Amino acid sequence: MEKDKLEKYKCFLEQLRYDGGLLWRITGVFLLPNSIFLAFLLTVSFEKERIGSLGIVVAAIIGCVLSFCWLLAYFRSLAFYDFRMAEAREVEPSKWNLLKGKPQEFMNGDTVEIKEYPYVLWLRWYQKLKTRYAVLTIVILFLLTYLFILLSQLGYVDKLLKVIKNFTGCYN
């Protein structure tokens, strides 16, 4: 029975490795084209003769759709990764401490001692800034930039700035 549990654990680790790699591949697959597309769009969208251009409006909408697809693919892969991690932790042999125990405590920001040497994340707030949030932040920034381009092409940004100027009296 113990041998079956060990084999199952190895399978879960392999699947976990695959799902973790898939998360990064999804990020790479969407990051490169979005970067090139957004750089082009930012280059052409604020030239005077192109303000209000239908082509730029359509391109900004396409960018929003691409970013939304990226977000969906990322969340789906992340859910599988979290699921695989929970499965692997469940069948990990006791006292191995590869995924649960000290590694999990360290990941949660707790101080962990190994051979009387304390290990701790050097910035306490850093424990909350996990990689999953970094990728999510990048996707949201792309989406917000596409939305800004779209709204500026439709004239809403200028209207908003005028409202802020009238309300505060301090915007030039």
Backbone CA Rg: 23 Å
Number of domains: 1
Estimate the global geometry from the Cα principal axes.
elongated
The share of residues in helices is over 70%
Oligomer: single chain
Please describe what this structure looks like:
With 172 residues, the protein is mainly α. The protein has one domain (2-96, 131-168). Helix content is 72%, strand content 3%. Strand 1 (112-114) and strand 2 form a beta hairpin. The protein is elongated, with a radius of gyration of 23 Å.
Task: Characterize this entry briefly.
By secondary structure, this protein is mostly helical. Helix content is 72%, strand content 3%. It contains five helices and two strands.
Key descriptive features of the protein:
elongated; mainly alpha
Give the SSE layout:
Layout: H1 2-45, H2 54-91, H3 102-107, E1 112-114, E2 117-119, H4 131-153, H5 156-168
Antiparallel strand pairs: 1-2
